From TrEMBL:
PANTHER family in the cross-refs: PROTEIN BLI-3 (PTHR34818)
UniProt protein name: General stress protein
General stress protein FMN-binding split barrel domain residues: 8-130
InterPro entries, per database record: Split_barrel_FMN-bd, Stress-Dev_Protein, YdaG_split_barrel_FMN-bd
The organism of origin for this protein: Sphingomonas glacialis
Entry-linked Pfam families: Pyrid_ox_like
Domain of life: Bacteria
Length: 159
């Protein structure tokens, strides 16, 4: 089993490789929606999302975000607070060609909004099943805790 530091490092590596999350208000008033996270290595426990001003999350509040890695070997459930944060310096820092494709008028698009998700806590699972665990899966054996990967509940995702 990986330690907390290792598993949080893995989270950020996996999100850098595939930054797609399902994000929804935690009050149960609406469904989650897919968003592309913009990562800033200088800010701990923070995700950013470029959205349209008509997005259901624009009013902010408590959210839950779910992440599944590209290889389906890492999972995260992230709780936090989301708010609009149209800081021009941050928009400039995070702007890229993928974002530009959604906002034809660029950084001056009147529909552009930047959301900041401040992570309060997260639950992380890494399903790196050991060789003996994989063999047991093939023959119907019972996988023990030390064979099934890592799990952590963290108050910070600082790597």
């Amino acid at each position: 089993m990986a330690d907390t530091h290792e598993i949080t490092q893995t989270l950020w590596k996996k999100m850098a490789d595939s930054p797609f999350l399902m994000v929804g208000l935690a009050d149960g008033s609406s469904h989650s929606e897919p968003l592309t996270a913009q990562l800033d290595k200088d800010l701990v426990d923070t995700l950013f999302f470029f959205v349209g001003k008509d997005n259901r999350l624009i009013g902010g509040g408590k959210v839950m975000a779910q992440f599944v890695s590209k290889g389906h070997d890492f999972f995260a459930c992230i709780a936090g607070t989301i708010a609009q944060d149209n800081d021009r310096a941050m928009i400039d820092k995070l702007w890229n060609k993928q974002v530009e494709a959604w906002f034809p008028e660029g950084k001056e698009d009147p529909n552009l909004a930047l959301l900041r998700l401040k992570i309060d806590n997260a639950e992380l699972w890494e399903t790196d099943i050991s060789l003996s665990g994989r063999l047991k899966m093939l023959v119907g054996g019972t996988i023990t805790a030390d064979e099934n990967g890592s799990h952590a509940v963290v108050d910070t995702t600082a790597a």
